[in-house]
Write a structure and sequence with these properties.
The protein is mainly beta. It has 1 helix and 13 strands. The relative contact order is 0.25.
């Protein structure tokens, strides 16, 4: 078996074992299914949740407009992509309103759904073993005039110059009521 075998090699087993330990230390994980564009492969492990800012270890899916909400995901980049130049993305879908992404400055921008116009939440840089992506941190919807909404947050990473673009296919869905 070749070391480059991303599913069967000792490197793959090591990555899985390291990920399990890290996940168990953080919070109740929700493993997110992934989808890829192009023919590039990835063994990305991705987990995340929406939670009240005061209870990061307790994921939720329904919040009041006065709750302080955090939505985060951890990407565990496969060994074959670690240290390559990559970009991570956070995309937010608000039902009835549209799509947004979080840019490298932490601002929210409207998005038309065209991958070519999507900007990363980091400037291109070497990808580490793991990366926490933050969609919302201590977000209080009422402070922005939001009283109700259905929101889904998607997370992704890409390797520029290749056809590797991997994202959470279901995302993290939550409701503000």
């Amino acid at each position: 078996m070749a070391r480059s075998d991303s599913e069967q090699s000792a490197d793959a087993v090591f990555t899985i074992n390291q990920t399990r330990v890290q996940i168990s230390k953080r919070r109740e994980p929700k493993i997110l299914p992934i989808t890829k564009l192009g023919s590039g492969s990835s063994n990305l492990i991705l987990y995340g949740a929406a939670s009240r800012s005061s209870g990061l270890n307790t994921p939720g899916s329904s919040f009041s407009s006065t709750d302080s909400i955090d939505v985060r995901a951890n990407l565990f980049i496969p060994s074959e992509h670690q240290s390559l130049t990559g970009i991570t993305y956070v995309v937010i879908s608000v039902e009835g309103t549209g799509l947004f992404y979080r840019d490298a400055a932490g601002a929210y921008q409207t998005w038309n759904g065209d991958i070519a116009s999507l900007q990363g939440n980091i400037n291109p840089r070497a990808l580490d073993f793991s990366k926490e992506l933050v969609a919302f941190s201590e977000f209080v919807p009422a402070n922005f005039g939001v009283s109700s909404a259905n929101i889904t947050v998607f997370f992704a990473y890409a390797i520029p110059g290749t056809d590797v673009f991997v994202y959470s296919s279901n995302g993290i869905a939550f409701t503000i009521q």
